[in-house]
């Protein structure tokens, strides 16, 4: 055997774009390709394709990392089809941090999109979400369009999953402060403050009634979760800094949306390389509590069976499944499990808009599963899930009511 044959192959440079976050090599190699994640991945279960599985996606990342592949249309499709539900993380015995890997892969993908697509996404994820007035204006515009039925002029798939905006609720100011005790600041957020103002009001009331001084920051705004999930980490960091500043005096930060509470608990990691904001981010993230984690004062009533929908970022990101059931029992409800309840409903942030076909299949599966429980109510503690599940139940003509746990506390 010649020296050339014995010589190891040359190490190729990674094909990630420089200056943009990329999946870390140590995260990529932590996957041993065992396949235990496959039965838990919703897109793999729908399609049966290895390319639609966590193992297949990590293999694609590894190929780019090792210089054997580039970020092309195939790579982009594989990453875009991912729900980022993180069910694979819960199932993985090796603790592969797939959530942050898919976010970094999408940051790499974003500059490769067609310029018109990239521009539209940037307007929404960077500019609208970072400005509360713009979010409010967009919500008001949607509410007016829905009231005049102008939304019917748009694609049916988009209309189905658009949040219903009540102009009456939007015009009614929310309290700035309620109750007395330790200061608990409520995340205003984006969708919650526009399409779920009744839930915001009930959350403030529930927190104030549990011995806190519940406050709504005057500036308010998005936590940055959507920007982080869809390829704009720098925009997410800036939104995090804005929220950290407004939460400085809060002893606890209350969040009533699963995706937001999960993301905000990672602020310390998100800003770890920022010498000014990193320590503040770590401290603030330790004060974040999902509403389900709070020991709320409740009054027990005869509410009957209530189906329990576990938002992915509750069970996979925060292990809060038992807390939802505890809250339901505390108000006099009987928690009912949904068949195949750990499977994502298909909302997944903007997934229902960006991947309507896969999302519609998951939506119907979830709605049918909820209907089999025979419960009259399903408790859902995440806005995207609530919109998606309500749409799915309408599609199968089910009368089951979708409520946030805060609305059960009276």
Walk me through this protein's architecture.
This protein is of the alpha/beta class and 410 residues long. It has helices at 3-6, 25-29, 42-47, 54-65, 73-80, 87-91, 98-109, 115-128, 132-147, 156-161, 167-171, 191-195, 197-208, 225-229, 233-246, 258-264, 267-270, 278-287, 312-315, 321-330, 351-354, 356-371, 383-395, and strands spanning 177-178, 183-186, 213-215, 252-255, 288-290, 304-308, 333-337, 377-379, 401-403. It has a five-stranded mixed beta sheet with strand order 1-3-2-4-5. It has a four-stranded parallel beta sheet with strand order 7-6-8-9, with helices on both faces. β8, α23 (383-395) and β9 form a beta-alpha-beta unit. The model has no long low-confidence stretch (mean pLDDT 93).
The percent range for strand residues is: 5-15%
- Residue runs with pLDDT of under 50 for 5 or more positions: none
Count of separate structural domains: 3
Radius of gyration: 22 Å
Shape: globular
Strand order of the largest sheet: 1-3-2-4-5
Profile the largest sheet.
5 strands, mixed
Keywords:
410 residues, alpha/beta, Fumarate Reductase Iron-sulfur Protein, Chain B, domain 2, Rossmann fold, 3 domains, five-stranded mixed sheet, four-stranded parallel sheet, 23 helices, 48% helix, globular
């Amino acid at each position: 055997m010649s020296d050339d044959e014995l010589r190891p192959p040359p190490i190729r440079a990674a094909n990630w774009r420089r200056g943009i976050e990329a999946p870390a090599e140590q995260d990529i190699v932590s996957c041993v390709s065992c396949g235990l994640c496959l039965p838990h991945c919703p897109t793999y279960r729908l399609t049966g394709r290895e390319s639609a599985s966590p193992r297949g996606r990590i293999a694609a990342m590894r190929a780019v990392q090792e210089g054997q592949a580039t970020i092309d249309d195939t790579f982009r499709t594989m990453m875009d089809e991912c729900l980022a539900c993180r069910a694979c993380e819960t199932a993985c015995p090796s603790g592969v941090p797939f959530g942050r890997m898919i976010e970094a892969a999408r940051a790499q993908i974003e500059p490769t999109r067609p310029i018109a697509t990239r521009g539209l996404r940037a307007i929404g994820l960077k500019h609208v979400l970072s400005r509360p007035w713009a979010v409010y204006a967009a919500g008001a515009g949607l509410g007016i369009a829905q009231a005049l039925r102008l939304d019917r002029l748009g694609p049916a798939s988009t209309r189905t999953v658009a949040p219903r905006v009540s102009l009456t609720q939007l015009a009614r100011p929310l309290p700035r402060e309620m109750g007395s005790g330790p200061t608990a600041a409520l995340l205003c957020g984006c969708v919650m403050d526009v399409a779920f103002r009744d839930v915001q009001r009930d959350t403030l009331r529930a927190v104030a009634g549990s011995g806190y001084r519940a406050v709504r920051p005057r500036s308010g705004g998005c936590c940055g979760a959507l920007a982080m999930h869809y390829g704009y980490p720098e925009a997410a960091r800036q939104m995090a800094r804005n929220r950290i500043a407004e939460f400085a005096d809060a002893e606890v930060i209350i969040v009533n949306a699963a995706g937001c509470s999960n993301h905000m608990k990672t602020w310390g990691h998100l800003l770890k390389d920022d010498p000014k904001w990193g320590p503040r981010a770590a401290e603030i993230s330790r004060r974040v509590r999902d509403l389900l984690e709070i020991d709320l004062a409740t009054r027990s009533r005869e509410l009957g069976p209530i189906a329990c929908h576990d938002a992915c970022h509750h069970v996979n990101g925060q292990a809060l499944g038992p807390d939802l059931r505890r809250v339901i029992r505390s108000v006099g409800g009987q928690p009912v499990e949904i068949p195949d309840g750990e499977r994502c409903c298909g909302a997944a942030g903007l997934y229902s808009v960006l991947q309507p076909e896969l999302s519609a299949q998951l939506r119907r599966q979830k709605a049918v599963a909820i209907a089999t429980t025979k419960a009259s109510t399903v408790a859902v503690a995440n806005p995207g899930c609530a919109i998606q599940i309500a749409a799915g139940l309408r599609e199968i003509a089910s009368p089951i009511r979708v409520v946030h746990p805060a609305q059960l506390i009276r």
